[in-house]
Amino acid sequence: MRIRALLGAVVIATVVAACNRDSTARDASQPDTSPTPPRSRGCDDVPNASDLKKLLQAAPAQNGDAGGLNHGKFMWGAIVNRNGELCALAASTEDAAATWPGSRGIAIAKASTANAFSSDTSPLSTARLYTLSLPGHSLWSIANGNPLNPACLAPANDVKTGIGNVCGGTIAFGGGVALYKGQTRVGGLGVSGDTSCADHEIAKRVRQAGGLAPPSGMPSDDITFTAADGATPFSHPLCPNTFRDGKKIGDEPAASGY
Q1: pTM for the full predicted model
Q2: CATH architecture label of 42-250
Q3: Is residue 177 a contact partner of residue 114, using CB atoms and an 8 Å limit?
Q4: In the chain, which stretches have pLDDT less than 70?
Q5: Cβ-based neighbours of 120, under 8 Å, separated by 6 or more
Q6: In CA terms, which of 29, 45, 108, 228 is 20 to 30 Å from 9?
Q7: Looking at residue 37, what is its pLDDT?
Q8: pLDDT at position 40, please?
Q9: Around Cβ 134, how many Cβ atoms within 10 Å?
Q10: Dihedral (C-alpha) 144, 150, 154, 158: value to the nearest 10 degrees?
Q11: 152 with 167: CB under 8 angstroms?
Q12: Are the CB atoms for 40 and 181 separated by under 8 Å?
């Protein structure tokens, strides 16, 4: 009887303690489920440097002429993951110095911009930021945000400096697109080395060939031109020898009045 009474007292004490316990206290043995589970595997979800180089080299021959000054054949490419960390750098030429050396940093900034301002439901290419970023428009001065980390700059032929870092940079002209796996944004791609219109065209082809384009149900982030598509807040100016999807759109007007 004494044993039963003792057991009963222990049970009652346990129940009372449970009732009096702060309901908001965290039980370390039962961690809460995160409301925002990881959406990607970092750099494992995007092409590595070797694959990026192959995609850049193949892009000019896909879907007709890419236009521009060099038809998209002398390009730098950069890829960041969902968190904005630089995952891969590559040049389409065997000698990276044969491309514009300044395009290395611009490619990184384009990749960072496309990733930073796209979401799981709405891709936003750097081309679509152009008009919005001009004086008098709603995103004036956006290019001053998230400046490129100078620690990520390096000489031509250096495809290692900056890898793993958040390099940042904000660019408001064509050449940067977000990367997707299904409904999830997994990073951004930046391409530079020709006109900004040709840069966008090559980036679009690389993304498509790599199987990283946004699902068809999402809004389009393709480059648009007032001359071909009518005026919109997302229009990008024509470049010299502008092509889109293999078709000539037009040329940047000649300067006058100087």
Answers
A1: 0.85
A2: 2-Layer Sandwich (3.30)
A3: yes
A4: 1-38
A5: 39, 183, 184, 185
A6: 29
A7: 61
A8: 76
A9: 13
A10: -90
A11: yes
A12: yes
